[in-house]
Amino acid sequence: MWFSVAARALLGASMATAMALPALDPTAPKDPGHTMKLFTLEQMKEEPANKLFKINAVSGCSSNPNIRFEWREYSDSDRHALVDSIQCLRSRPARIAGSNNRFEDFAVIHRNFSPQIHNNQKFLLWHRYFLWAFEQILREECGFNRAFVWWDETKDAGRFSQLDMFSPNFFGTMHGCLNDGKFAGIQQVGGGCVSREGTAENTAQCSTDFENYCRGMGNYPDFERCWEYGPHGYGHNGIGGTMAYVEISPSDPAFYMHHSYIDRVYRVWQNADPARRTSISAISLGGIKPDVKVRDVIDTLDGAMCYRYTY
Ligand SMILES: [Cu+2]
What we know:
By secondary structure, the chain is mainly alpha-helical. The chain has ten helices and six strands, in the order H-H-E-H-H-H-E-E-E-H-H-H-H-E-E-H.
């Protein structure tokens, strides 16, 4: 599956308009996601319990948060430490079935969860946690001890391949199989080389205009849609090659740089209204009754509905 991008491109929309969103294509073959998934009672009992856990609350976070620095603010020493720690992860043993090393674990997990975490409102939150977890594993298992990084793609719109990030010094150059830099020879999950294309028409959509347009959205569903199908999709398709292949795109280390930009703009959009930091969306019945928040319906006795059962 390739990345869907919004037809509402602000500049040079020709690439985008040719790509219909999958859900709108009536000729698209039905996949297993369209049929009811069933477990018998016996199978259900064998399913491992949901491994939800709580992250230990970090006391004092608001007064002393970790800071992510933009690539251009990041020293050469920091850049090398980052690339070296990612390379270190590639030398560590896999812990996930179907993966060949610890770095690939992330791409395999991303592939396995892919239908649940794209094209819906979980997208931004899941990828936020995924990126944070990647950072933590770099620290815990490969000794990475610098501030983390983000990439302001608007400064490179239309010319990603000219950024020094995509050089043999750091993430490797942009064209064809990745065969220079620390990650030379890196393979995709599922086989084949990690490759890139670097198409300017697509990366041009990672623009200040497009970012500002999405940041102007007044509610989460509209922002999420704009951001996922807009610059997020164009960045993937623009780096191209492995990055344009949704499920396994984290096979390319550049994935994490791209998603740092996606996450940063989500945070900037949240900064504009505190309510955006406590709620992602309304539950909508299309106007039959007013839209409500999760908190309005999660407790039947404390919210919009107020009812209980006889037993
Ligand atoms: Cu993804």
